[in-house]
Amino acid sequence: MSKTVWIWGPDNLVSALASPLAYPTKRLASTNDLLSIEPDDWVMEATIGPKALKRQRLKALADAKVSAPVLSQSVTVSLREQTRWVPTLNLTGFDPLLWGAGGHVQTVVTSHESQDITMWERLWPDRKWVVTGDAVGLVYARSLASIINEAAAFLAQGVPGPEIDLGTRLGLNYPGGPVRWAEDWGWDTVQFILEALAEVYGDRYRPHPWIRQQTGQTFFDNGVT
After folding, report:
1. Which domain holds residue 165?
2. Residue 221 is assigned to a structural domain of this protein
3. Higher-confidence residue: 1 or 10?
4. Cα separation of 179 and 154, whole Å?
5. I need a surface site. Which of 5, 28, 77, 202 has the fewest CB within 10 A?
6. Residue 129: strand pairing partners
7. Are strands 42-45 and 5-8 parallel, antiparallel or unpaired?
8. 3-hydroxyacyl-CoA dehydrogenase C-terminal domain spans which residues (predicted)?
9. What pLDDT score was predicted for residue 119?
10. What is the C-alpha separation between 165 and 168, in angstroms, rounded?
11. pLDDT the model gives residue 111
12. Residue 112 counted as domain residue
């Protein structure tokens, strides 16, 4: 039987995570689907939201006695904390936002130095996989979220989003702009990441009050970059 990659997360991330995979994928639509996971399958748990929801989903995997390896988002919760919640799961941490961006280097967090990551390399063979430190935000999400937070201060002053992104691309030679990044992620995702960072690293990551008001807000017409 062919391996299946089961993906648990929001709609926009599920499609982005599934598109490059070398194996068939299925979405975990409810806890009932957990009983269909075979030991040789893989699971990608990409929930970025309240910590209670993240813990609830990992505990559901553990309660269903899922023995398949789990690639679990470690942007808002460290892998160390996740393994304390569910010590029976075979967890590896990752950044689903970096994955969704198609980064040529994918970062993972392991629970011990000798943990084998070759099984994850088989999922996306043309990417380089690098083990990074177990820190909330990891590298990509932490860097971009802080830039987005700065952009929010300008948006709150009435500066148009496309102008902020244009200035970022031309002035800093970035491949994209913080407002577009935020809209691709969703402003609620940005808020959850910044709140998790602020809890660990302090007020410099505290989300700008403007961000909390922006669920569903867009500054771009469809197709305009």
Report:
1. 139-214
2. no
3. 10
4. 10
5. 202
6. 106
7. parallel
8. 137-213
9. 81
10. 5
11. 80
12. yes
Token readout for 187 is 């402003």
- Are 114 and 152 contained in the same domain? no
Distance (Å, whole) CA 187 – CA 209? 12
In the block, residue with structure tokens 């553990």 = 62
Backbone angle region of 181, left / alpha / beta, with phi > 0 → left and psi within -120 to 50 → alpha: alpha
Decide if 97 contacts 183 (C-beta within 8 A). no
* Beta bridge mates, 25: 5
Contact of 94 with 109, CB cutoff 8 Å = yes
User: What is the number of residues in the chain?
Assistant: 225
192 vs 170: CA distance, rounded Å: 29
- Under DSSP, is residue 209 helix (H, G, I), strand (E, B) or coil? helix
DSSP 27: E
Residues ≥6 apart with Cβ < 8 Å to 105: 127, 128, 129, 130
Residue type, 36: S
What is the predicted pLDDT for the residue at 11? 82
Alpha-carbon distance of 173 to 167, in angstroms, equals 9
In DSSP notation, 84-133 reads HH-TTS-EEEE-HHHHHTT-SEEEEE-SSTT---HHHHTTSTTSEEEE--
If one counts the domains in the chain, the total is 2
User: Alpha-carbon distance 116 to 133, whole Å?
Assistant: 16
